[in-house]
């Protein structure tokens, strides 16, 4: 395990501090001999759980087998990514839950490892969501920086379109007929009101039929509009969603608008779940939890209630052991089935990609609905674009995170296909200026031939089939891998997952008897489901979730800005709880 | 920003991190600086986030420190990268009555070298000068070590308060105030303060 230490020492060094040679790593004190709850893995769910338990008063020992925080949703430097891939591929026990990591770094000398923060499972945060309320309530948001993300692009007919999501945009759009505008407005109104008593009957009649059928029959929307609702606004990871799933997902988007401004989502700067995990771990530490990295669980003996770590140290546990499947002890037998796959493709490109971002922003989403790609994709491909302004990469570069729940070779092909489309698009859009000049000189024949000017069609963004880019896009890193999870796409985690271990216990079998396993990160591209899972685990340990993060920071003198609106957000969390669990 | 000639008040905020072994008095120094108090029994909790304190450099300049304590995460060398992120100053604390604590301070300086950004101002601080009779680390030794590395060097007593304010003031004088003011102006529109919502009466106007 020691080989996995990142070798970031060689990179950028503060000029003021000369190199100090010959300082041995100090001998660490031994871990505490007792705790109430041992948590293995510092992923986001485990970190929220640790903080909730610590503030509730439990003595928490929180360890991670890796030398960094975040576990399965860590934010990694380039050197850490390299080491991570090696570990995934040699199947070492710390990385259960990933496979087939393929890494390509064509110009190693151009990547300064510590300039990058690459997320293993990137996510976006809806402005009205349980995690956001928790970030405020727990004050963890103060450790982090958040930025807005407004642009949700949909790829359709070889074109990227930006979804019309506000009243103003719909009214001013030239391409829609008045009738179709009215239908879209009606649809959005229904989305916000479907749970009112007067809509109850209609909802119950239709809630289990396909969303696409319902929307097209009831509101006569075009298939392109339906795709945008499902896959861009709704960020559905699969086709054939039910009406209730579709409605709750579109609503999630609409109610998040204008909470903080004219955008529905945010992201944390410098890295997503990896950063937020660290924030909750710090909060847990402030509340008294003990932290130790580079510490792998070897076994747990439920009879003596003793956990043993790889380094030989032991700790008595009075309550429970919670473990991420990624940190299950070698020879474990009770890890829940991980039946679902997410295929991810992460690239760093040498382009700012600012053409895709809204004014003043540094990130965007691009969604490829089913069957929109040359690979005839059965599932959507979702993609988060993170520019240098997100703090994840240097200037004039950009990180693209593509993912799909399509499995195996097909999944990889869909991602490559989507990547190609993104490459074509960004080259075309970023070349617009120079392209015009070149065309006016050399494309007289084309213009004489056809009635429609090539320049105009490019500018209107209607097609770029004939576009031949002057330059090639430079990829600085390409990483593809498969992640497994026990959370069904679109579902929320169920209590049964945690109970499985206990039900199947066979005394004397395996080093993980009575260990409660968390799930691996879900296929969901937002943070929804994360707090739900942490709450479920919390209830399982404490008996109920009544006092989950029931923290009173009134005496925190430092908290000086406390505006009256804070309580409003906390209240909203209660109010909107049911819809966040979007499997109704 | 309207500025009548020369009278514009300059206010800049900087993140300062504490480092050093457990029980050398990191929290006590901050406690003394922020609240001007001292407790023989260490308070385990310093609030949910971090403490802040301002230093007035002159009539027109105020520096505010956002002070991050280790929250115990230093014990097993498990400080998170968010701890070091954007830190512009660091207080590396040792105990003048414990020879080994200076060696361990060297470990933390090395750690800063790996994790913190370039240009960070580091102060090596010997605590517990109130226990002069038990001193094991001479001022000369520590100072020459600090000077050799280009670090600031102070000796303080969190218990009596001696030297604490001066230490923070000297660090404040080293902070890149103009740089920070410019950066904040540039960044303002891009960061969302989750605790500041615009008026709440029009929440659902997307429909």
TrEMBL record, chain A:
GO terms for molecular function: GDP-dissociation inhibitor activity. Residues 405-432 form a coiled coil. One of its GO terms (biological process) is vesicle-mediated transport. InterPro entries: FAD/NAD-bd_sf, GDP_dissociation_inhibitor, Mrs6. Pfam families: GDI. The keyword Coiled coil applies. Keywords: Coiled coil. It comes from the Eukaryota. One of its GO terms (cellular component) is Rab-protein geranylgeranyltransferase complex. Belongs to the Rab GDI family. This is Rab proteins geranylgeranyltransferase. It comes from Brettanomyces naardenensis.
UniProtKB/TrEMBL annotation, chain B:
Its main location: membrane. The keyword Nucleotide-binding applies. One of its GO terms (molecular function) is GTPase activity. This is DEKNAAC100056. Coiled coil: none annotated. Belongs to the small GTPase superfamily. Rab family. One of its GO terms (cellular component) is endosome.
């Amino acid at each position: 395990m020691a080989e996995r230490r990142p070798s970031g020492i060689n990179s950028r060094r503060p000029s003021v501090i000369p190199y100090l040679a010959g300082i041995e790593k100090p001998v660490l004190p031994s871990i505490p001999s007792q705790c109430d709850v041992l948590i293995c893995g510092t992923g986001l769910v485990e970190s929220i759980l640790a903080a909730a338990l610590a503030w509730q008063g439990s003595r928490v020992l929180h360890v991670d087998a890796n030398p960094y925080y975040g576990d399965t949703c860590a934010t990694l430097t380039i050197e850490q990514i390299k080491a991570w891939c090696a570990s995934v591929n040699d199947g070492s026990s710390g990385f259960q839950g990933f496979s087939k990591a393929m890494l390509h770094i064509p110009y190693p000398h151009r990547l300064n490892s510590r300039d990058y923060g690459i997320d293993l499972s990137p996510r976006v945060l809806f402005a009205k969501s349980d995690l956001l309320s928790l970030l405020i309530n727990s004050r963890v948001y103060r450790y982090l920086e958040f930025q807005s993300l407004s642009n949700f692009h949909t790829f359709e007919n070889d074109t990227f379109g930006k979804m019309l999501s506000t009243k103003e945009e719909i009214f001013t759009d030239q391409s829609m007929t008045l009738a179709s505008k009215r239908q879209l407005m009606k649809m959005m109104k229904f989305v916000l009101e479907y749970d009112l008593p007067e809509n109850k009957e209609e909802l119950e009649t239709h809630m289990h039929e396909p969303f696409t059928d319902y929307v097209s029959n009831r509101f006569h929307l075009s298939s392109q509009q339906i795709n945008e609702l499902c896959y861009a606004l709704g960020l559905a990871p699969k086709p054939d969603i039910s009406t209730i799933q579709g409605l709750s997902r579109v609503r999630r988007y609409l109610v998040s608008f204008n909470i903080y401004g004219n955008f529905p989502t945010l992201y944390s700067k410098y890295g997503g779940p990896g950063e937020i995990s660290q924030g909750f771990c710090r909060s847990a530490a402030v509340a008294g939890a003990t932290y130790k990295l580079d510490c792998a669980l070897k076994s747990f003996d439920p009879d003596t209630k003793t956990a043993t770590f790889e380094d030989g140290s032991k700790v008595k546990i009075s309550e429970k052991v919670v473990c991420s499947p990624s940190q299950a002890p070698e020879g474990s037998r009770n890890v829940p089935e991980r039946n679902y796959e997410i295929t991810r493709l992460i690239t760093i490109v040498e382009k700012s990609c600012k053409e895709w971002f809204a004014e003043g922003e540094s990130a965007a989403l691009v969604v490829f609905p089913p069957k929109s790609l040359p690979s005839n994709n059965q599932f959507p491909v979702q993609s988060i674009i993170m520019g240098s302004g997100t703090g994840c990469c240097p200037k004039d570069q950009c990180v693209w995170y593509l993912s799909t729940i399509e499995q195996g070779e097909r999944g990889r092909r869909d991602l490559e296909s989507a990547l190609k489309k993104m490459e074509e698009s960004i080259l075309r859009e970023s070349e617009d200026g120079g392209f015009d000049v070149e065309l006016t000189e050399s494309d007289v024949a084309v213009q004489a031939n056809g009635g429609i000017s090539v320049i105009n069609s490019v500018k209107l963004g209607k097609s770029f089939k004939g576009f031949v880019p002057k330059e090639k896009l430079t990829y600085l890193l390409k990483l593809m891998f498969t992640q497994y999870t026990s959370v069904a796409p679109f579902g929320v985690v169920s209590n049964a997952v945690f109970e499985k271990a206990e039900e199947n216990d066979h005394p004397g079998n395996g080093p993980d008897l009575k260990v409660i396993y968390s799930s691996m990160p879900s296929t969901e591209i937002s943070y929804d489901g994360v707090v739900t899972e942490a709450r479920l685990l919390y209830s399982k340990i404490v008996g109920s979730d009544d006092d989950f993060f029931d923290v009173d920071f009134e005496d925190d003198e430092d908290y000086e800005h406390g505006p009256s609106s804070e309580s409003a957000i906390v209240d909203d969390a209660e109010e909107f709880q049911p819809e966040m669990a979007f499997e109704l | 920003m309207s500025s009548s000639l020369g009278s514009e008040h300059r206010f800049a905020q900087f993140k300062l991190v504490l480092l050093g072994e457990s029980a050398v008095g990191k929290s006590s120094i901050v406690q003394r600086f922020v609240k001007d108090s001292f407790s023989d029994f260490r308070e385990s909790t310093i609030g949910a986030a971090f403490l802040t304190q301002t230093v007035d450099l002159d009539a027109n300049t105020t520096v505010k420190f956002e002070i991050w304590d280790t929250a115990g995460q230093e014990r097993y060398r498990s400080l998170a990268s968010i701890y070091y992120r954007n830190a512009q100053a660091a207080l590396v604390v040792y105990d003048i009555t414990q020879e080994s604590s200076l060696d361990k301070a060297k470990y933390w300086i090395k750690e800063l070298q790996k994790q913190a950004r370039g240009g960070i101002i580091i102060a090596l601080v010997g605590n517990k000068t109130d226990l002069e009779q038990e001193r094991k680390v001479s001022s000369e030794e520590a100072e020459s070590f600090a000077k050799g590395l280009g670090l600031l060097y102070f000796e303080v007593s969190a218990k009596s308060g001696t030297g604490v304010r001066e230490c923070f003031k000297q660090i404040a004088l080293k902070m890149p105030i103009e740089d920070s003011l410019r950066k904040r102006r540039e960044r303002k529109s891009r960061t969302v303060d989750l605790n500041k919502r615009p008026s709440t009466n029009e929440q659902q106007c997307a429909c």
